[in-house]
Amino acid sequence: MTFAGESIRVEKVTPEAFRGVEIAFFSAGTAQSKEHAPLAVRAGAVVVDKSNAFRMDPAVPLVVPEINAHAIKGHQGIVASPNCTTVVTVMALAPLHRAARVTRVVATSYQAVSGAGVRGVEELRQQTLAWARGEAVTPSFFQHQIAFNLIPHIDKFGAGGYTGEEWKLVQEVRKILETPDMAISPTTVRVPVFTAHSVAVNAETEEKVTVERARELFGAVPGLRVVDDPDQGRYPMPITVEGQDDCVVGRIREDLSLERGPQLLGRGRSAPQGRGDQRRADRGADRRGAPGR
């Protein structure tokens, strides 16, 4: 196959395919990871898995390198990569937690259609063009129209009215920060943005953290940039961060209803369109699930 002007040989996955491989990146889906990752490990490779297959396995480290790289030392051949919105959220939560211990989190995500794969991106493009031409806008991939709309529904609904995507955020943040009892209230929303997920986070801490101190803490994290000057119209937006590697945090302010704990609005890049387990899983989940609230 040709990609970015380079000819790349693509081979069928077999047990023999992993011979001599030191590090294998898996991003083909949960079922594929469960089937083939053990084969790669037996062949001597270390697997970095992007799917949901091993994230909550107690024997598998769930790692964001800038936050808990130390967890990699305990791997037994497989290292899991968190869900997209989890990464964005913990990049800002971790420094607050280390400095003042986060006790409660309310997080609402605004997730781009790229998170649902290439078909999600194409559906937003086609619906926008249809609207501009004055034609009927008919959903075929997402359960509802996504152009000029918000869909508070990603993955299937489960216990307590929360979706699978929301439970991932709860469980994965707890595992990465090593806080199994942290109180987290999540809401995930699909938005008509092509790339770059956003998360609005309200964090309550045991000790008071001023806005100035929060900026200092965020600024010291590799891979996290502070863009926070509302008077000049500078704050994180998907259109200004897409295609970049860093997560961006802004709109940092104290919660008017609490004596401690800043509010923050973080945004991070989305992974390339059409790749990754989360996007593949969302293809079916966004179609199948019941209507959101």
Annotation keywords:
11 strands, 293 residues, globular, Dihydrodipicolinate Reductase, domain 2, alpha/beta, disordered C terminus, 3-stranded parallel beta sheet, 8 helices, Rossmann fold, 2 domains, single chain, 6-stranded mixed beta sheet
Q: What do you see in this structure?
A:
With 293 residues, the chain is α/β, with parallel strands linked by helices. The chain folds into two domains: 2-81, NAD(P)-binding Rossmann-like Domain (Rossmann fold), CATH 3.40.50; 85-288, 2-Layer Sandwich (Dihydrodipicolinate Reductase, domain 2). It has eight helices and eleven strands. The chain has helices at residues 30-42, 65-68, 84-100, 118-132, 164-177, 211-219, 238-241, 277-288, and strands spanning 2-3, 6-7, 23-26, 46-49, 78-80, 102-111, 183-190, 197-205, 224-226, 247-254, 262-268. The protein has a six-stranded mixed β-sheet with strand order 7-6-8-11-10-9, with helices on one face. A three-stranded parallel β-sheet has the order 3-4-5, with helices on one face. A two-stranded antiparallel sheet has the order 1-2. Strand 10 and strand 11 form a beta hairpin. The longest helix is centred in the N-terminal third of the chain and has 17 residues, at 84-100.
Topology:
Blueprint: E1 2-3, E2 6-7, E3 23-26, H1 30-42, E4 46-49, H2 65-68, E5 78-80, H3 84-100, E6 102-111, H4 118-132, H5 164-177, E7 183-190, E8 197-205, H6 211-219, E9 224-226, H7 238-241, E10 247-254, E11 262-268, H8 277-288
Parallel strand pairs: 3-4, 4-5, 6-7, 9-10
Antiparallel strand pairs: 1-2, 6-8, 8-11, 10-11
Helix pairs in contact: 3-5
